[in-house]
Amino acid sequence: MLCCMPGVALVPALLVTWSSAAFIISYVIAVLAGHVEPLVPYISDTGTKPPESGVFGFMINISALLAAITMYIRYLLIEKQNETSRFVRSSCNMFTLCMGLMGCTGMGIVATFQELAVPSVHDIGALVAFGSGVVYITLQSIISYKSCPRWNTYFVCHIRMAISVISCIAFIPMIVFASKISMTKIDWTPGEKVKSY
To answer: Boundaries of each CWH43-like N-terminal domain copy (predicted)?
Structure first.
C-alpha cells in the first residue's frame, strides 16, 4: 500500500518546503519589482502582476498537487490503521479526504485566476480553499482523538486541535472583512477616490 512505502513521509515535508518557497519567491520578486510594499502584503497581492504572477501560479499549483497527494496518503494510512482497530467509519475518512481535495482545488483556482484579473473567481477559490481547509483540519483532529492512544499521542491530538481552533477563529474575520471590501487595484495614490461597487 502506498502509505506504507519507505520515503512517503517526505511528501508532507516537500509540501511545506515548496509552499513556503512559493510564497517567499513571489514576495521577493514582487517587492524587488516595486509591485507591493515590503511590509506584510496579502499573499494574493504578491502573485498579481507579471513576472511574479507566473511564478506564484506555477508553484501554488504544484503545492495543490502535493497537498492532494499528502491528503491521499493520510487517507490510506487511516484506512490501513482502521483494519485492525475500528476507530472511525470509512465514510467519515472518505468525506474528510473529499473536503481536503476541495481545498486543493480552491488553491488551484486561486493560483490560476489572479486577484485583479478575475476577482470573483479568485475570491471563490480562496473561500473554497480556506473553508475546506478548516473543515479538513478539524475532521483530521477528531479522527486523531478517536485513534488515541494506539495510533496517536494526546500531545499530537492537542496540537492538531489547537491548529483547528486557530484556523476557525481566523476564518471568521476573513469572511467578514472580505465581504466588506471590493478591491479593484493594489496601488493607491494619496487623494485618489475609492470606487464602491
So the answer is: 8-182
In the numeric block, which cell numbers belong to residue 94? 472518505
197-185-27-39 Cα dihedral, nearest 10 degrees: -80
pLDDT tens-place string over residues 33-86: 999 989 988 888 888 899 999 999 999 999 999 999 999 999 999 999 999 888
Residue 68: name the closest of 12, 10, 110 by CA: 12
Q: How far is CA 101 from CA 51, 54, 118, 189, in A?
A: 28, 23, 22, 40
Q: How far apart are CA 98 and CA 71, in angstroms?
A: 9
- Could you give the CA distance from residue 92 to residue 145 in angstroms, rounded to a whole number? 14
Given a contact cutoff of 8 angstroms between Cβ atoms, the answer to whether 26 and 62 are in contact is no
Tell me the pTM: 0.87
Q: Which residues of 131-154 are buried (b: 16+ CB within 10 A; e: fewer)?
A: bbbbbbbbbbbbbbebbeeebbee
